[in-house]
Write a structure and sequence with these properties.
Blueprint lengths: L10 E7 L5 E7 L1 H10 L3 E4 L4 E4 L8 E8 L6 E7 L27
Length: about 110
Amino acid sequence: MEMKYGTDGLIPAVVQDVENGEVLMLAYMNEEALKRTLTTGRAWFWSRSRQEFWCKGETSGNRQYVREVQYDCDLDAILIKVLQIGPACHTGERSCFYRSFEKAKTDLLPD
């Protein structure tokens, strides 16, 4: 099986809490980060801003212990189910997805 990385060599990785299904964060992996994740049982990513590998929790202590790694039907996205220790977001929130857009106009939606 050959994953389909983007032209930048990266693939999006959605991180989900294995216990309750909550989406915790979205990060990016290259082939080496995926290998490190699969072999160490810890979540590794590629930082697009710093251009370096990072293991979730190495500086914050908010670690992610990998329980399962899945890939989508097109082989171009990863789902990582983790046991999350502490907040997943660098802001201190449990999930990076803690904000919402204002409610959409319901008159545009079908009945």
